[in-house]
Structures are given as structure tokens and as C-alpha cells.
Amino acid sequence: MLTAATIAILVVMLLAIIRCVVGPTLYDRILAFNMFGTKTVLLISILGFLMGRPEFLDIALVYALINFISVIGVLRFSDSVEFKHSLQQQAPTKEDKQ
Amino acid sequence: MLAHLPILQVIVPLMAAPLCLFLNRSKLVWLFALLVSAFTCANSIFLLQQVMSSGTITYQLGGWDAPWGIEYRIDELNALLLLIISTIGTVVLFAAHTSIQKELAEDRHTLFYSLYLLSITGMFGIVSTGDLFNVFVFLEISSLSAYALIGLGKDRRALWAAYQYLIMGTIGATFILIGIGLLYQMTGTLNMADIASRLAEVNQTRTVFAAFVFLIVGVCLKLALFPLHLWLPNAYAYAPSIVTAFLAATATKVAVYLLIRLSFTIFGIEFSFSSLPLQNLFLVLGLVGIFAASTAAIYKTNVKHIFAYSSIAQVGYMIVGYAIQTPTGLMATLLHLFNHALMKSALFLALGAVVYRIGSAQLSQFQGLGRQMPLTMAAIVVAGLSLIGVPLTVGFVSKWYLLVAAVEVGMWPVAVLVLLGSLLAVIYIWRIVEIAYFKPPLPGREPVQEAPWTFLAPIWALVLANIYFGIDTRLSVQVAQAASQSLFGINP
Amino acid sequence: MLLGLYNYWIVVLLMMIGFYIVIAHGNLIKKLVGLTIFQTSVFIFYISMGNVDSGSAPILAEGVARYSNPLPHVLILTAIVVGIATTALGLALVVRIKESYGSIEEDEIQIQDQLTEDKTSC
Amino acid sequence: MSLILEIGSGLCLLLGSFICLSGGVGILRFPDFYTRIHAVGVTDTLGAGLILTGLMLISPDGLVLLKLIMILLFTLFINPTASHALAKAALRNNLKPVLDDSSDKGGDKPSKL
Amino acid sequence: MLTGIYGLLSASFFVVLDAVDVAFTEAAVGAGISGLLMLAAITMTGRSEAPKRHKPLLALLVVFITGGMLIYGTLDMPYFGSFDAPVHQHVAPRYINDSMQEVGVPNIVTSVLGSYRAFDTLGEVAVIFTAGIGVLSLLSLPLRRRSSKLDESSSENSSNSSQKDQMHEQHMVLRIVSKVLIPFILLFALYVQFHGDFGPGGGFQAGVIFAAAIILYAMLFGLDTARRVFNQSIIQLIAAIGLLLYASVGVVSLFNGGNFLDYNVLAADPIAGQHIGILLIELGVGFTVTAVMIIIFFNFAGRREAQQQATERNSPELNVTQANSTEQKGGE
């Protein structure tokens, strides 16, 4: 049963990576990234049981947290002004530096 | 406390670096850092004395025996390097306070000293450790702080130079890491002496050969050996003057040390020079390096650039001495390590003084400085003569031994080429002298004053050392001879 | 017969990818990303070196006979820290470069440098 | 007793895996961002919950159980929040729900990260 | 962001290979911190990229030579996972068999890291410290400018700040959830810190998690709010204290008559001494790592805000359009 779940999760991770690479928008990528992170958490927990070393759960826990933080981080930074206007902004910054 | 000398050498500057942040007053921090580096200097003199009288010192960190714990192992070579680094570090630091006041913003001063001490720590760590992975860790300390120090330069090109250095340096460090991994895989240990003893069984495997190649290439990246030197000139030219003076005198020396340590102690002479055509390769690279870099130096207009390229050329001399692979050749290399540190730090410090007064290191700005800053320019001339290798200076001593070594094994062409290379040095030194002494001062510029004494004292200390060790060669030659003989396994 | 070494070949592949990015890309941040990949490949190399068939994680527990080799893990912990330190410093440099040059492309920076050099030497 | 637990955990795991798989298919096959986030948001939370419950049923001791519960709680907290934030951010940046053609305004960004 | 996935993937890889501690670190570092830093840097530098590549041929050549060299080297290596490899025979058995008697810590990685090779770890802390100082020296803003900017933004540039508030308002759900989560994260970090003797974890990982929690706070509640709690100079001192704590443990053992970092002399019983020593140095590591990570992130983010304000002040018309667009978005 555990093995089956592992395989299923691996397949889902693969699908998520495909979506992540294909895009097409930034948000799709973030979404796939988030999903990937969740699946990693599950994968690690299951692996811990498979190998009989439940210490791995600590890592899964860290993953859950880090995943959240990095998704928030991506969102916050993609909200920022430069991100949206990075192309328009380059001209003025160049001028005022010289 | 005497038994703990090896570790104190590293640990004192390491602890002083965070302490700097507590003091937070520029002058106070400077005094503190100076005190610390003076301590390391004294410490290294003691160490050298101890090593010369009673042989190799080992020190087990954490009380664990060697292959399990980390071991410090100081022999003549390490002690010599420690002495060079700590002396140069102290003398250069003496001028730092004056210099960085012009070149750095006020709130960066504390950080500067902290980074400087960390950089010294890293170099001490590399030199004194007997554990291969420890070398990597301390290599990273010294190079990370070097990147940051270079990035502090005023010019924006300093940033770019630091970035290039970072990329090249990290590639080099990663190569070294791969090499360490391969070695570890074949021997199961990280201790240098232990690796050396266990390597004999697996000598013939391709893995060890690959490890050797990776380590050598990694070290050569750090060493700025001729084709891998691209990061060096800009890094030296745009860093703050103090940093240049310190790094130019020490950073490449540490890499040379690593090269020697790797090929002689760990892999053994037979392996190092028989598995690869290392001798010919290094001879050619060294000689080409001397000529290419000296020629490039002739055409540069920034004096810092000139001396940076000359550094690459000097690395070429060291490599030639190393590649001759006789005790005399190695001795010449070690002597040149010592001597080059003396003359390069003097030159770059004097340049720092010039930059302090006129705010530029462009050759065209040097007009008339010979009369306006007589002491500084005289120092540049003397150190420059030493760079060329004129008798009665240190440069002559090391080149003499290099020639002797080359002639001993019948490599006449090498000897001739080394002499020719020195002639190129004459040209670029002459350009500076000509502009500084024989051209009128720049019109429209206020008369430049002589450099302040905080500059002149260390500069002239170094210049006098240049002359002293050029006349009285007993000390340096004795130590270098002992070191090279012990590396070749000859008991004096 | 050579299948016993497959792990190292994956590492080599990763390493080559990372190294290629470092050398060939002009974008400074991409270079750093490549550097990270390069370093990580070395980490994997070390870790796979320390692995033992049917070994377990090196935390002492009852009923476990074989453990993986802990030493590579220790080394790599240190190396990871060194890696993140390098990355942080490199990114800081890139940010400063962007501020003062207005670009993070290698060739544009070189062109600008060339210009300033010409100006000063004239 | 232990047999029942094992059967229960097996069922939970299977169901969870199935739901995860369907989510994976969803993220790949659905036409635009908002439907995708729907697929992922729902299945991720439910699937993860089921799998973790399945693991809890066979956990050997208390500490492990506690950690699993913590992970479950975190997932329950984090996943909806992240999905919410993501959807909101997408909406604010004028990414309109499109059914036929996903080449809308956001699509022409060179999103390479 | 693909770096993030890459970090996650490589971490899972480490898990498969039994390297728990490494997976732990890579999870926190590769997926979390380094990704965040990359993002912060990318937002500051812009995402545009010149498509052209130079000298691909030369690069390929170099890469292939290196790769070929490595493959050539691998040919004589012991097989993957084989127990007879010299790696597993020479030094490592002592760690596995005797560390329990000599150090008394079940997690072998911790005992090697903290005791046998403690000096490497000291070097590692010094590296992190160096990086922190380096970033500080490169990115920190001059004090004068910062204070003057604060004045401006509070007095004349009120529209800007209100816009910022609006941005925070929009993340209501996020903020509340994070408020609930952050204490747990901090608690978890402490658990990792002190549980490192028995399970995966230790000072470095704990420090990263701790810093991540604070970074989360700073991202959602604004940098200035976070700065009020974690003053720049105080964090600097914390970083210094961590390194000093570590080194002074070594110095104390020097004075107690042992070698540097020899914990056996710290207490009457060697095992107890080892415990004290490892605990203290892990604390030191945790302090420094936390502080340095926060320093790095704050300086990146602070630089970004300064840049943003500078461009807004210098280009009013851009500012107006931005304001318009945000209004539109608010309306939707």
C-alpha cells in the first residue's frame, strides 16, 4: 500500500513539474510549485514509514513550513513594483545613475 | 601555553573579528586589529623558532587523534608562510587607518577591519592545518572575505572584478572539493599525512589521477597561473589600496603553498611528476606567463594594473622554480615567495600612498611626483629595482637561486628566458620612473604633499627589509633550504 | 558491469549542466544559479559515496546493524553552508552591479568598462 | 484490532493517492489558471489529509503520531491559505479567467524563474 | 523558482540516500533561503535577459573535458553502495562504533560535527559570519540617508505609505494565518535546535528555520515593523556573539588544560563535558546563522525598498500610472 502511494505521488510530482515548465503564466508555475512541495512532504513521510525510520517526519515538517514561506515569498516579490514594470523601469534608472 | 601556539595563531584573529563589531569606533578598531595582528606576528616568530629547533609540531584539535579528528601540523614550510602572512598583515594594517579614511565610507570601517581579520584567519587556517577538508573550509573563509573586501572598492569596476573573482574562485574551490572527495573515496581519510601513507596502494587507479588533476586545476585557478589569471588584474586594480597590498602579497602565496603541499606531501614527488607531464607543462606555462604578463604590464596605463600583471609574472617565476623539481629549484620558489611578498606589499602600499594624495593611480597623473613625494617615489624605485632583480635587493637573491637551479639540471634555455623576463620588468619600471622624475608636474594641479608618516613608516620598513634580506640572506635562505629539503625528504 | 557506477554519472551530468551555465550564460544571476547546481552536484557525489547497501540513517537505534557513513554527511553540511554563503555574497554583488551599471548582462558591462577605460586613458 | 487499523490505513492511502493523482491530471489538463487552482486546491488538501491519516493509523508511537498531526494541521492551514493568496494575486494582476484561449495578458510575460 | 524545485528534489534525493541531516539542511537552505534570496535579487535587477549566448563552443569544450575527466575518474571507483569501499573501512567505523561511548550522542552526524570535527564547524560558522559581514558591507545603506528617507516618507510621501498599507490590507488572510503559524515555527525551531542530539537537526537548521519565521513576518508586516524588533546593530552583535560563544568554548577547554575544543575537560565526567560542549556550540551556531540570515534578507529587502522609493521619487509620471493601476485593481 505504501509503495503504491509512493508511486502515485511520484507520478503527480512529475505532472506538477511538467506544468511548472510549461507555464504559461507565472501563477501557474507558482501553483505547480506549491503542489510539488505538498507532494514532497507526503513523499518524505511515506518514505519514512517505508524505511522504518520515522525521524524523517521532522524533515517533512520543515518542508511544509518552508514550502509555505517560499510560496508567500514568491507572491510578495511578484507583487512588487519592479517585477511588473521591470522592462519600463530600466531606462530611468540608467539615466539617473549616470 | 607554549604547546598551544599553533591554534592561537588562528583562533586569536578569528575571535577578534566579531569583537571588532563591539568596538565600533574606527580608530579603536584599528588599534585593536593592529594589536591582534602584531600578536599573530610574534606568535609566528615563536613558532618558526620552535620548528627550526625541534622539528614538526602537531596539535590535535578537540583532543582527537589524527585521522579521526583534525590535526594541525606545522613544519618549516608552514612556519615560513605563517611568518610571511602575519608580518605583511601587520605592516599593511599599520597604514590602513589613514588609507581607508579616504577610500571608504565611515560606517564601513568596522566591517572592513573585521573582514580583514577574517581574511588573515582564513589564510592562517589553510596554511597550518593538516586536514584536507579543513583546507577547503578556511579557503572559503579567506576567499569570501577577499571578495567582500574587493567589492568595497570605490570604483564600480571593483564590483565587477569581485564578481568575476567570486565565480572563478568558487569554481576553483569546487574543483578542489571534487578532488578532495575523490581522494577521500579512495583512501577513506581526510588527514594529509594519512592520505599520503594510504595512497601508495591505490596509486595506479584512474580515480587518484582524476583527483590529482582536479586539485591541481583548482589550485591553479586560485594561483592565477597564466591561462587562468583573468580575475586577478581587475581585482587588484580596483580594490581599496590596503586590500590590494595585502592580497597581492599573500593570496597567491597561499595558493603556491597549497600546490607544493599537494604535490610533495600528499601525492609524493614520484607520482606528481610522473603521472602527468607536469614538469614541462608548468615550465612552459610559467615562462609563457612571465612573458605574456610582463608584456601586458608594459602597455597598461594604470599603475595598479602594471603591478597586478607583474604579480602574474612573478607567479610564473615561482612556478618555474617549482617545476625544476630539485631542492634548489624549490628553494628558489620559497625564497621568491618570501621576497615577492616583501616587494609587492611595499609597491602597492606606496601606490596606496600616492592614491591617498592624488586620488588616482593613472600613470599620466604621476608626472612630477618624483620631486613632490620624494620618499614614496624612492620607495617605489627601490622596490621596483628589487622586482627587476638588481643585486643587493631581495629580488636578486631569489632569481640567482632560480638561475643556479636551472643551470644545475642543464636547463640553459630556461635560465636565459628567466633573465630576459627580468629585462621586461626593467621596461615597465622605467616607464614609471621616467614619468615620475623626468616630466614636469601636471599644470593646474596643486603641489602634492609627501605621504603621511603612517604610510611612510610601513613602506620604508618593507623597503629596508627588501634591502636587508638582499644583503644578509642567512635567515631567509636557511629557512627556505630547510623547508625544501624536508619536502624532498632529505635530512640536513 | 559499469552499472554499479550509475550514480556518479548522474552527478557528472548535473555537474556538466551547472558548469555549462556558469561559463556560457551572460546573465549574472543565471551564472549564480549554475554555480548552485554545480555545487549541489558535488554534494550529491559526496552523499552517494557515503551510502551503503541496506544501511540506515546514521542515528543510533536498536536493531539496526548497518549505518551509512556519517562523515560525508558532516562534510556536506559544512559545504552547504559555504555554498549558501557564497550565493548570498554573489547576489549582493549582483545587486550592486545592477545599481551602478544598470545591467546584469556580462557583455554590456564589459562594453561599459571599455568605454570608461578609454575615457580615462585619453 | 491491528488488522482493522491496517485495512483502514490502506484504504485511506489508496483513496488519498487516487485523489492526488486526479489532482495531478487536473493541473495538467484544465484549460486555465483558475480551474487549475481549483483542481489543485481541493485535491491537495483532501489527498494529503487522507494519506496522513492513513499513516497515522499505522504509526508506532506517540511522538510520531504527534508529528503527523502537526503536519496535517500545517497542511490544513497552509494549503488553503496559499491557494487563496495565489488566486487573489492573480486576480489583482488582471489575469482574467478564460475558457477557450489562455493567451491572455499574463501569458505574454516571459516568465522564467 | 525552478531552483526551489531543484532544492526540494535534491533534498528528497538525500533522504533516499539516508542522509537525514543533509536533507534537512538542503530542505531549509536549497528550497527556502537561497530561493528567496534569488527572488529578492531578481526583483531588484529585473527579469529581462539577453537571449544570446557567447562562446558556447569553448564552454562546451571545457565542460566536456571536465565531465570526461570525472567519468574517467569514476571508472576505478568502488561500486555504489558497496560496503567494502575504503570510505567505509578506514575512519568511519570508529565514528559508528565508538561515538556512543566517547561522545554519548545517538546522532552520529551531530557527534562528528560537534566533537570530532568541531573545528570544521567553527570554520563553517566563520564562513557564514563572513558572508553576513560581506553582505552588510556591500548592501547596507548609509545611516544618514536612511533616516532622512524615513522623514520624507513620513511627512511628504504619505500617499506612498498609504498605498503600502493598502497592500498589506489585501493580505488579510495571509497575515492572520501567519500570525498563528509563526509561534509554532519558532517553537519548532527550538525543538530542532535541542533535539539535534537525537534526531536530525542542530544549530544550523534551527537557525535557518528561526530566520525563516522572521523573514515571513517581515514579508507580511513590512520591513520597518520587523526592523523595530530586530534592530540592525543588535542582530550584528548577535551574529558576533554566536561566533564568540563557539570559539570561547574552545578557549575555556584550553584553560582547563585540554586542547582547543576538547570538551572532555569541561566537566568532571567526559561524557557530560561532551554534552555541555556540543550544546553550547550548537547554540553558538544557531545564534550566528539566525542573525546572519536575517541580516542578509533585511539588507536585500531594505535595498529594494530604497531603490523603489528612489525610482518613484525620480519618475513621478510612472508613479501616477502605478497609482492609477492600483486603483483600478482595487475597483475590480
From TrEMBL, chain A:
MF terms in GO: sodium:proton antiporter activity
Topology within the bilayer: Multi-pass membrane protein
An example Gene Ontology CC term for this record: plasma membrane
Record's keyword terms, sorted: Cell membrane, Membrane, Transmembrane, Transmembrane helix, Transport
Transmembrane regions: 30-50, 57-77
Localization: Cell membrane
Signal peptide start-end: none
InterPro entries: MrpF/PhaF-like (IPR007208)
Principal location listed in the UniProt entry: membrane
PANTHER family: NA(+)/H(+) ANTIPORTER SUBUNIT F1 (PTHR34702), NA(+)_H(+) ANTIPORTER SUBUNIT F (PTHR34702:SF1)
Family of this protein: Belongs to the CPA3 antiporters (TC 2.A.63) subunit F family.
Protein's name according to its UniProt entry: Multiple resistance and pH regulation protein F
Native source species: Shewanella piezotolerans (strain WP3 / JCM 13877)
From TrEMBL, chain C:
Protein's organism: Shewanella atlantica
Chain ranges passing through the membrane: 6-25, 32-52, 72-95
Parts forming coiled coils: none
Protein keywords: Cell membrane, Membrane, Transmembrane, Transmembrane helix
GO cellular component: plasma membrane
Alphabetized InterPro entries for the sequence: CPA3_antiporter_subunitC, NUOK/Mnh_C1-like
Membrane topology annotation: Multi-pass membrane protein
Subcellular location: Cell membrane
Family: Belongs to the CPA3 antiporters (TC 2.A.63) subunit C family.
Protein name stated in the entry: Na+/H+ antiporter subunit C
Major subcellular site: membrane
